[in-house]
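Following the same procedure, the fold was encoded as tokens, giving this record:
***
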Amino acid sequence: MPQVVLIHPQIPPNTGNIARTCAATGTELHLVGPLGFEISDRYLKRAGLDYWPYVKLHYHDSLDAFQTYHQQRGGRWLGFSVAGSYNYIHFQFQVDDWLLFGSETTGLPTAVISACAASLYIPMTQPKVRSLNLSVSVAVGLFEARRQLGYLA
């Protein structure tokens, strides 16, 4: 099943909402530090409500630590970015994909995008809107991957 990876998330409620989505879908959630908050942050816990026991949460201190972990497990890195090369709807997801999302303020680091098998974007009609909320982007990407792979039945 695809996994969600947040690289340097900054806003606790976004991460909490993403954790709820991951809990509801049984999706592993990887947080890659440094984070813009403490794991014990009350806003993070509030957004995740009482679902934290159902979150398959992994914390990695650094990008290097996460890369080492990923190498042991395998699978493709797919980076979501407003500057992505492929519309996520037209991309063929695989069961062992890792869906990578960057921080709310800076997005994915260039080095991470370069290491990805593909970079994906979520199309938006209004050109003056720079991006979607991180938790919305994760839900959109994750549910499309799950739909394609038959996990919504």
About this structure: The mean pLDDT is 92. Residues 134-148 form the longest helix (15 residues). Helices lie at 12-25, 42-48, 63-73, 110-115, 134-148.
